[in-house]
Every structure is written in C-alpha cells, then in structure tokens.
Amino acid sequence: MSRVGNTAIATVSVVALCSGVLLLRDPIGIHAPPQPSAAQAHADPGGERAAAPALPPSPPDRIRIPSIRVNAPLTGLGLTSTGSLDVPPAGNKNLAGWYEAGTTPGETGTAIVAGHVDNTEGPAVFYDLGALRKGSAIEVDRRDGSVALFTVDAIEVYEAKDFPDEKVYGASKRPELRVITCGGGYSRSTGYQGNVVVFAHLTDSR
C-alpha cells in the first residue's frame, strides 16, 4: 500500500464528497440531516481523556459509532485528478471510506474517514453524524485483528469557503481521527455547501 507522510494530507480537499449528493425530498418524508450545535464545536482540554499509546500501522476494515447506530465497512479512498478526496460509491448507502495514502486509524497522525450523508434513496451512512456529542465512542476494526477506540473531542460544521484544511488534516503527534460528511447549507444546483467534521483521538484499543 502506498502511503504518504502525515503532513501531506493537508492538501486533500473534500469538495467531491458533497458536490453531487441530492438532499432528500419531502415526498419521501425525510428532513435535512442534523447539524452540530455550538456546544459541541470546541474541545474542552480540561475534560479530554488522555491519548492511548499509538498502534502500529494497519488498514481499517469497519467503523462503528454506537450512539448514532453506524456499523459500516470501509473502503480505501484516493484522490481525484483535481486533488479532491475521492468518495465511496453513492449507491451503497452503508459504506464509508478512509484515505489510504495517509495515516491508518490508530497510528500516530491524523487518519481520515469520509462518507455520504444521503443519496437519492434515503439517509446514508453518516446521516446522523451531526447529532454526535463530545465524549461519544468511535470504534475502528483493523485488519491486524485489533480495534482502535476513539473518543470524540468536538463536532463542527464549516461552509466550504471557510474549511480549515490545516485544522482538519494537519499533522498530529498523537493518534487522531477525523470523520467527515456533507453539511451546512444546501443548493439544488451544487449540493451541500459545507461539511460536518468529527474530531476524535485514540483513548484505548483491544
């Protein structure tokens, strides 16, 4: 597997994740996905659990977020020809992806997982991501048989023009995880106008 350094991920854009997704229409009874509240937007350093020791590199196979009923396989994602993060197939609503040229979840650095919020058939894997709360658990099954256990530090929403690349993708000295989906405003011509981003760090493993 080809991998790049931890700092190289700062060049990744998530524009492709949201540009083609259609907001679900009222006739099928689905409303806009939840967005994080201001109370969830910033980590509280005093209440943050200490990071667990980093794990050796190992590709991930599955992500679980019990509080929002996510239990999804992971597929590897690369970059498009324009430098955007590629996306999982939109037709498989319970599939997420991880940026396989970067950090694997659990090792030192910033690992990236992304998935759709919805598709034309209904809610997709990360529809409820904006409803997460600080302190929630995220579990990642790894190919070496271990499970990386992350604790959510913050959930934030950004308009595309204000997306903080360095904050989201920048290098970290401890094992961290970002989970990203579409969010913010919506335009029928261009799709969602921003992203929901979950910030988490490794707090245990088994």
UniProtKB/TrEMBL annotation:
Residues 34-63 are annotated as: Disordered. It comes from Streptomyces adustus. This is Class F sortase. InterPro entries: Sortase, Sortase_dom-sf, Sortase_F. Keywords: Hydrolase. GO terms for molecular function: hydrolase activity.
